[in-house]
Design brief:
The complex is a heterodimer of chains A (about 500) and B (about 850). Chain A is α+β, with helices and mostly antiparallel strands. Chain A has three domains: about 10-260, no CATH class; about 265-350, Carboxypeptidase-like, regulatory domain (Immunoglobulin-like), CATH 2.60.40; about 350-475. Chain A has nine helices and 20 strands. In chain A, the strands form four sheets. In chain A, strands 1, 2, 3, 4, 5 and 6 form a six-stranded mixed beta sheet that branches. Chain B is of the alpha+beta class. Among the domains of chain B are: about 1-65 and about 120-125 and about 130-225, no CATH class; about 355-485, D-Maltodextrin-Binding Protein, domain 2, CATH 3.40.190; about 565-785, Dipeptide-binding Protein, domain 3 (Roll). In chain B, helix 4 (about 165-180) packs antiparallel against helix 5 (about 185-205), helix 8 (about 250-260) runs antiparallel to helix 9 (about 265-285) and helix 26 (about 745-755) runs antiparallel to helix 27 (about 760-775). The chains are: A alpha+beta (about 500), B alpha+beta (about 850). The interface between A and B is medium-sized, with 26 and 28 residues.
């Protein structure tokens, strides 16, 4: 959807939103303007939805629309459904939509069929937004009983409906959206055009030099409604980019938004190496509900770098993270599983050097953890021996302890590894080596060495042992029988006379 | 004292054989109780029971001598000295004469012997409590009866035999033997005990013990009444059972034992006739009547009864017409087909199907190697385009047509179809862009990248395009025949045996084989395979357990060969199990294993060597991809416990339970319980489950989930084999999500990068890096590497002492007929 033809409906939408037409009846503001929706309902003959039953279904459905949604939906049922409404709807593209009335805001292509497994009546359909030429995801709902078909069809159309909006500004890091028809009172809460949690995708409309309008979806960006103030929805910006709604665009442009609801189709992703364009195979993909839900493993990219992300129970925007070696993040971006069945290619830097250092750091951390465990065990044993005053055993344990590698050797190995990584990062211009994650790993391991591999305990036990030995050495001296008192020394010069003479 | 039945039987034999040997006084003293308890003579101090004439009973310490001599009846004058006689002339002497009076000299009183009086010492103190004297002389005449302690013991033993308490009875007899081995009646009672107990054991169904007891009795007293009949009946029952279970050698051995006891017994004659009759009946069952069926019938008949000259002559004649090689293995390809998914497939696939390229040599590329389909392989576009020229005149075994480019192209395409996990090869699917036959004899392959070693990819078996996905064609509603192009054709295949026949056509190479028939027989237990080989039923043994190699080598009839590649034993881990994805747990598992100890104590039963040693990775020592300077994996049970505990905390699991699947290979069966024990010491519960090797390997390669699997690997080319060695499902269809089974994502990334390597130096460097990082990442737990051996009997001539595969050079082998004779009839 990079380049599109000039789009009359979109211009109309923008014109209506901005200024009233001169000399004509006053234009309706966007928030007061209902959605003109064309329903193209076709059915499989196996569904046995003949004209009478179809009319009955539509009539009862319209009644429900009136009761629950109200005037916000202006429905036109196409007498002759568009050819797009058939069993190949899932594979259809926006370009395939032909013969569409540009005055209609949205077209719903619905195919009613029978589930071969359960024989239930099944509605499948996609919404086409005229303003953005966006063909929404495939929605599906089964009616468990023919009597329940109108209710199921109504719920199905609620799933199908996506509100349109203009992004009118940003405030406090939130995007402000003026939603079409939001000022029209809904007949019930169920029929509210926009509610807290409604998700939009931002679209940029750029007027080109030839006055054509280029419609571009801002990639990996979602706007989640946090609060509704009148017709303005205040939305959190979930994006892989720092400033996705930037106005720093050379050409005149407008930002619009289109509501999006996940369908049942899994999201097909293909990761490729951004430098070689080869498949990024064997990388782990994790997801967590945006903004900060618990993470879970999605799977691993296959040989061709492909992976399918099933819509999870949250059925909303998730943050996907691609990891190398189970820990080094290569890419992180928000996305909505089920928003499209088409494959999306994502280029990543596989960070081969960072992964290599990551493995070595993991190995080093393992050996440190082993040392901590061994030292801890020996320290506990030494403590019990010291308490029991089993000094010989304590000495043996100290000897065993001293045989373990010293903390310095680990610090040295870590330093060597870090120096090598720094050197490699200077030498390598093609790929990042010292990623934030890797640097954090270096710091963490240094912390492990400093925090857990101290010698204080062993030194204390060593001192206790030495002290005991010293006491033992002093004890015999104290217990030894005192030598007989020596006679006073004779005065100098009389030694010989004072010396005892041998008898005889 | 309680003695187990086995000990008792052995001791009984010893008792009988050593009756003459006096009991050790020290032992008796050690055993002697100090209290007299007449109700329990076994626990009592020895005593004799004397009944006096007034019917009072006294317990005395054992009298001596034992037994007492019989008492003499009192003689009226016996012992009275003759009175001095007065001479006729008177005894008054004259003066001066000596007095003629003979003074009375009373004769010295003769001491009464034990036949008259005995000294007794009361065994108990009298009830007065005054410490009265306990030593008395007791006249034999005052004794009504004496019961010796030995007789009391024997009588008690008899009662216990009646009560079938043979253990206690034996203990009573044993005490008698210790006191006096020659005590009258002891031997007869022991015989009776052996007979009664043996009979009772036979009645209870414990035939082995019963027969052993009766044989002991037979050795002691062959003419014991009813003994031979009893033994013969028991032997007959066992032999009949052995025949029912087709355990003919065992049956013959039992018959031989029976005949050694009594050749004339009726049952022995009948059983001999039964064996001979069975052999004749089997020989008559020739099935379809083909020579192979006849040969099988005769061989089976001679296995039932080898001493049959007529059958033997017929067998030799039939064997010469169709020389048959029987190989004892522990698994067979089930079913065989044009695929390689287990070691058994690898063994026979080349015999059934020719590959496109036999090896990677220039001669093979030029089509100068025999046994391959390619006449030439052209490589263009920097190796991205290959054109295979298929040889003409190589017929399919069904004779329908010759092998063509269509067959080759289909086999290449089949390997890219993920719906067929037997043939699917994910790497090949990723590599192949297009395969199409250019004409009848040429196939063009467009590749996404050049092949590092074309023969690795082009040596897969090529099946017939006109056959089904399993390589078979339909002959009838019940019969589907495997169509091949190799020197042998599959005649029959079952989970327990596979029968290959040399092709009889005139295609050239195949018909030169002197071994016309190859039968692989699967034995469920490795010991059974070894026994069959030692017995001579099989002429070749596919795998020799390392601890048996020296023993076999000492047999002059046996030769030992060595596979060119050593076997590397590893524990594969499935990373799809979150427990095994945990690095700490993997390290705990590794630390728990004492590699050197287990290798030497259990696998080799001897010291390790340069070729049999603990492993630090999946690549064998000395291999080009074996990284130098890698620290050996340590055994540290303390760390294993600590890390397992840490892993439990990380996983928030109360206990760690895993299943270990292993193939029934002799050394693996021996070591798995030790591994389980080692893991249990680290508080990791591992449940061992035996799975046939082919089944295990083929399922793992298809991507089946598992926890831990014991794998025995051989590495031909580390660059190309690394993936399958580290991650069993590396080539599995994507639906199995088998890549996720690599427990270390880092190693998986390296493997996938290795797969993309375009030239050898970078590929080899990457393989070395994988080996180095594998030590820390532990996607598998390396155990040890051993020399892998096979063996053959001397009647088979031709196998090389070193071979890549078991049947290398089979076309030159020769085999002589031979029937396993019983050792006693040789």
């Amino acid at each position: 959807m990079d380049r599109q033809r000039p789009l009359v409906p979109l211009i109309l939408l923008l014109a209506l939103a901005t200024c009233p037409a001169r000399g004509e009846e006053p234009a309706t503001a966007i928030e007061n303007r209902p959605y003109r929706i064309a329903l193209h309902l076709a059915s499989d003959p196996a569904a046995r939805l003949d004209e009478r039953r179809r009319d009955e279904l539509v009539a009862r459905w319209l009644e429900m629309v009136r009761r629950f949604v109200g005037p916000a939906w202006a429905i036109e049922v196409a007498a002759k459904p568009n050819s797009l409404a058939n069993d190949g709807l899932e594979r259809a593209k926006a370009e395939d939509v032909r013969g569409h009335d540009p005055a209609v805001d949205k077209a719903w292509f619905v195919w009613a069929s029978v589930d071969p497994a359960t024989s239930d009546l099944v509605f499948e359909g996609r919404e086409y937004d005229s303003g953005t030429r966006w063909l929404g995801p495939l929605q599906r709902r089964a009616a468990l009983s023919p009597l329940d078909a109108p209710r199921a069809f109504f719920l199905f159309t609620l799933d199908l409906f996506s509100p349109s909006a203009l992004i009118v500004g940003q405030e406090g890091g939130r995007a402000l959206l003026k939603v079409q028809g939001a000022a029209i009172p809904a007949a019930s809460d169920l029929g509210a055009i926009v509610a807290k949690g409604t998700t939009f995708i931002p679209i940029r409309l750029v007027t080109m030099r030839d006055d054509s309008i280029r419609i571009t979806r801002i990639a990996f960006t979602y706007l989640a409604a946090e609060s509704i103030e009148g017709s303005i929805a205040r939305c959190a910006i979930l994006s892989a980019f720092r400033d996705p709604l930037s106005q720093r665009i050379a050409r005149p442009n407008t930002l619009a938004a289109l509501g999006i609801k996940p369908g049942g189709s899994p999201l097909q992703l293909r990761f490729v190496d951004k430098s070689t364009k080869g498949p990024a195979a064997g990388y782990t993909l994790t997801e967590r509900p945006a903004p900060d839900g618990p993470a879970r493993d999605v799977g691993m990219t296959d040989r061709s770098g492909r992976i399918a992300v099933e819509p999870g129970p949250t059925r909303g925007v998730v943050k996907l993270r691609l990891l190398a070696g189970d820990s080094e993040p290569l890419a992180e971006f928000p996305i909505m599983p089920g928003e499209s069945g088409e494959e999306r290619e994502i280029a990543v830097d596989p960070l081969p050097l960072a992964s290599k250092y990551q493995v070595q750091l993991d190995a080093l951390r393992d050996s440190i953890v082993d040392q901590v465990a061994l030292r801890g065990r020996l320290e506990r044993l030494m403590e019990s021996r010291a308490d029991g005053e089993d000094w010989e055993a304590l000495e043996a344990l100290l000897k065993e302890y001293n045989l373990l590698p010293s903390p310095g050797s680990f610090a040295e190995a870590l330093k060597k590894l870090k120096d090598e990584a720094v050197k490699t990062s200077y030498e390598s211009a093609k790929t990042t080596v010292l990623t934030r994650h890797l640097q954090a790993e270096f710091d963490e391991i240094q912390g492990l060495i400093d925090g857990y591999l101290g010698d204080d305990a062993s030194r204390a036990f060593g001192e206790a042992l030495e002290s005991h030995k010293k006491k033992q050495a002093e004890k015999p001296a104290a217990n030894k029988p005192r030598p007989l008192e020596a006679p006073p020394l004779p005065p100098p010069g009389q030694e010989k006379a004072a010396a005892p003479q041998p008898p005889g | 004292m309680t003695i187990s039945a086995l000990h008792r039987a052995t001791a009984a034999a010893a008792l009988l054989l050593t009756l003459a040997v006096a009991a050790s006084p020290a032992q008796d003293a050690a055993r002697a109780p100090t209290v007299v308890t007449p109700d329990d003579p076994l626990a009592s101090f020895p005593f004799d029971r004397i009944t006096l004439v007034d019917d009072s009973v006294i317990l005395v310490e054992p009298v001596s001598p034992r037994p007492l001599p019989p008492t003499e009846p009192p003689k009226a004058e016996a012992g009275r000295l003759p009175r001095p006689r007065i001479p006729f002339e008177g005894n008054v002497g004259l003066p001066g004469e000596a007095s003629k009076v003979e003074p009375f000299q009373p004769a010295a009183k003769k001491e009464d012997g034990p036949d008259v009086v005995i000294n007794v010492h009361l065994a108990r103190e009298t009830a007065t409590g005054r410490g009265d004297a306990r030593d008395f002389k007791l006249k034999r005449a005052h004794m009504k009866r004496i019961e010796y302690f030995e007789d009391i013991l024997l009588a008690e033993g008899d009662k216990l035999v009646q009560a079938r308490d043979f253990t206690r009875a034996f203990e009573h007899y044993l005490r008698v033997r210790q006191r006096d081995p020659d005590w009258p009646g002891l031997t007869d009672r022991v015989h009776a005990l052996l007979f009664a107990e043996g009979k009772h054991a036979l009645g209870d169904g414990d035939v082995t013990r019963g027969l052993r007891l009766l044989r002991e009795l037979h050795a002691r007293r062959p003419d014991y009444p009813g003994l031979v009949d009893q033994i013969a009946a028991a032997y007959a029952g066992r032999i009949d059972r052995a025949i029912e279970l087709a355990l003919y050698p065992e049956g013959r051995r039992l018959l031989h034992e029976l005949e050694a006891i009594s050749a004339d017994v009726r049952q022995a004659r009948e059983l001999r006739e039964k064996f001979q009759g069975l052999a004749k009946a089997r020989a008559a069952q020739v099935g379809s009547g083909s020579n192979a069926d006849r040969l099988d019938a005769l061989a089976d008949a001679l296995r039932i009864w080898p001493d049959h000259a007529e059958l033997e002559a017929e067998y030799r004649k039939a064997f010469e017409a169709e020389p048959t090689l029987e190989v004892a293995v522990t698994d067979v390809a089930a079913p065989p087909g044009p695929w390689l998914r287990s070691p058994a497939d690898d063994r026979i696939a080349r015999l059934l199907f020719r590959p496109v390229l036999a090896d990677d040599s220039e001669e093979a590329r030029k089509g100068e190697r025999p046994g391959q389909l390619a006449r030439e392989v052209e490589s263009t576009d920097l190796g991205r385009r290959l054109v295979v020229h298929v040889r003409a005149g190589l017929p399919w075994s069904d004779g329908s047509r010759d092998v063509s480019a269509l067959d080759v192209a289909r086999s290449f395409v089949d390997r890219c179809d993920p719906r067929d996990p037997a043939k699917y090869q994910a790497r090949w699917a990723d590599l192949l862009d297009r395969a199409r036959p250019l004409d009848e004899r040429q196939v063009e392959l467009q590749l996404r990248r050049p092949l590092l070693r074309p023969a690795f990819w082009l040596d897969a078996p090529v099946g017939a395009a006109h056959a089904g996905a399993d390589g078979r064609i339909v002959l009838s509603a019940k019969e589907r025949r495997l169509v091949g192009s190799g020197p042998f054709v599959c005649a029959a295949a079952s989970p327990n045996a596979i029968d290959l026949r040399a092709t009889a056509d005139a295609s050239g190479e195949a018909s030169t084989s002197k071994v016309r028939r190859l039968r692989e027989v699967r034995y469920g237990a490795p010991s059974a395979a070894m026994a069959a080989f030692l017995r001579g039923d099989a002429a070749m043994l596919g795998h020799v357990p390392p601890d048996q190699a020296s023993k076999l080598a000492a047999n002059p009839d046996v030769k030992i060969g060595t596979y060119a590649r050593p076997a590397v034993h590893v524990l594969a881990l499935d990373g799809r199990n979150p427990i095994l994805r945990n690095r700490t747990l993997r390290r705990a598992l590794s630390y728990a294993i004492d590699r050197k100890g287990l290798l030497e104590e259990t696998i080799l039963r001897g010291p390790s060597s340069e070729s049999d040693l603990p492993a630090d990775g999946v690549f064998p020592r000395g291999n080009g991809a074996d990284a130098p300077g890698v620290k050996p994996l340590e055994h540290n049970p303390v760390l294993a416990v600590a890390l397992a505990s840490l892993a439990r905390r990380e996983l928030k699991a109360e206990s760690l339970k895993l299943k270990l699947e292993y193939p029934p290979i002799a050394e693996v069966e021996a070591v798995v319980p030790r591994l389980v024990e080692a893991f249990a010491q680290a508080r990791i519960v591992v449940e061992p489950v035996a799975v046939p090797r082919s089944k295990l390997e083929s399922e793992l390669r298809a991507g089946r989930k598992f926890d831990m699997a014991y794998r025995v690997l051989r590495c031909d080319e580390p660059v190309l084999d690394a993936g399958l060695m580290i991650c069993p499902g590396y080539d599995a269809p994507p639906s199995a999500n088998a890549l996720a089974s690599a427990a270390s994502p880092r190693i998986l990334q390296l493997l996938l990068q290795l797969e993309q390597a375009a030239e050898w130096p970078s590929a080899r460097g990457m393989a070395v890096q994988i080996d180095r990082e594998l030590r820390d990442e532990l996607p598998v737990i390396p155990l040890w590497q051993t020399v892998d051996r096979y063996a053959w009997r001397s009647r088979l001539r031709g196998p090389a002492e070193t071979a890549e595969r078991l049947y290398d050079g089979i076309e030159t082998w020769e085999i002589a007929p031979w029937i396993a004779k019983d050792p006693w009839s040789r």
